[in-house]
Structures are given as structure tokens and as C-alpha cells.
């Protein structure tokens, strides 16, 4: 199978010191809405949940599970970096089957961005030390 067409499952997890579950749930719903507004019809690929099934995001407060085509990973990384910079009170973790990283509230260097994008596209090892 062509690797360019393989979808990467990505979990985006939000945390905040002193935040209660309702607040984290609210943040999660906002994040999901922002992802949809940025063109999730391109970013989020398909709905694998059977009708009437509980979604993964409703089972874990603070987490959004998305499926991303490798070509759209740079768009996701740009979005997440901007989100982290706007929301310094929240910690954002990105998880895949092969790594987990907490995104720091800073601008990534081109090298860090490149490693994160490559790791997300290929499902490789952790791109940067956390």
C-alpha cells in the first residue's frame, strides 16, 4: 500500500492545572469545533463510529481522536502550534501509536516543525525531547 495514502491516528489531549472536568470538556469541544472550522472535511477523514455508538472523545474527557492523511499533517501542526501559543494556560499533548509529545507554548524552529511533521506522517519515534 502506498504510504502517502495511509491515515495516521492522532490523539490530541488537553490538560490544565486546576481545571475541573467540565472546564476541560468545554475546552475539548472548542478544540474540536476549531478543527472543524479549519477544514476538517480535509483533515478529519471519515467517521468510523457506527450510528448510535459513543465516540472516543466522549469516553475520555480532554481528548480528541482524529485521523489525518500524511499530506495534511503540516496543516494540523501549524494549527496546533497556533493553538498552544494562544492558550498558554493549557497543556496540549499529541499522541500516536509510536510516540507522545507535549507541545511547548513556544514557536517551533523549522527543524522541530520538520521533525514533528515527519514523525506524524510516518508514525516514527518521538520527534523532539519532551
List keywords for this structure.
alpha+beta; 5 helices; 4 strands; 130 residues; 40% helix; four-stranded antiparallel beta sheet
Explained architecture:
The chain is α+β, with helices and mostly antiparallel strands. The chain is built from 5 helices and 4 strands. The protein has helices at residues 21-37, 40-43, 56-59, 73-86, 110-122, and strands spanning 8-15, 63-68, 91-95, 100-103. It has a 4-stranded antiparallel beta sheet. A hairpin with a 4-residue loop joins strand 3 and strand 4 (100-103). The chain is globular.
Biggest sheet record: 4 strands, antiparallel
* SS-derived structural category: alpha+beta
How many DSSP helices? 5
Element-level helix/strand string: EHHHEHEEH
User: Strand fraction band?
Assistant: 15-25%
Q: Order of strands across the biggest sheet?
A: 2-1-3-4
Topology diagram in text:
Elements: E1 8-15, H1 21-37, H2 40-43, H3 56-59, E2 63-68, H4 73-86, E3 91-95, E4 100-103, H5 110-122
Antiparallel strand pairs: 1-2, 1-3, 3-4
In short:
The protein is built from five helices and four strands; from the N terminus they run βαααβαββα. It is an alpha+beta fold and 130 residues long. A hairpin with a 4-residue loop joins β3 and β4.
